[in-house]
């Protein structure tokens, strides 16, 4: 479970959390919620869903999958 920090920007609601070296963010309103997982300035995963809870679950899952994948030895 991530510790989310909530912010409001007009009608948009944002949620931000950190997981190790990753920044997990969700932005949305009503039935469109976009989520993004970033490492520095690079998107590691992103997507959208119709519910805030769905966005939380998908974003957190994507962040955990980032750490579970095998590392490229040439990086």
Key terms for this structure?
75 residues, alpha+beta, five-stranded antiparallel sheet
Which sequence of strands runs across the widest sheet?
A: 1-2-3-4-5
Mean pLDDT comes to 91
Distance between the termini: 29 Å
Q: Which shape, going by the Cα principal axes?
A: elongated
| Percent of residues in helices | 10-25%
State the order of secondary-structure elements, H for helix, E for strand.
Answer: EEEEEH
Instruction: Work out the strand percent.
Output: over 45%
Find the structural class using helix and strand composition.
Answer: alpha+beta
Number of separate helices: 1
Show unreliable segments.
none
Gyration radius over CA: 13 Å
Q: Would you kindly provide a brief summary of this structure?
A:
The chain has 75 residues and is an alpha+beta fold. It has one helix spanning 52-68, and strands at 5-9, 12-19, 22-29, 32-39, 42-49.
SSE layout and pairing:
Blueprint: E1 5-9, E2 12-19, E3 22-29, E4 32-39, E5 42-49, H1 52-68
Antiparallel strand pairs: 1-2, 2-3, 3-4, 4-5
Describe this structure in words.
The structure is a single chain. This protein has one helix spanning 52-68; strands spanning 5-9, 12-19, 22-29, 32-39, 42-49. The chain is α+β, with helices and mostly antiparallel strands and 75 residues long. Strands 1-2-3-4-5 form a 5-stranded antiparallel sheet, with helices on one face. The protein is elongated and about 45 Å long. The N and C termini lie far apart (29 Å).
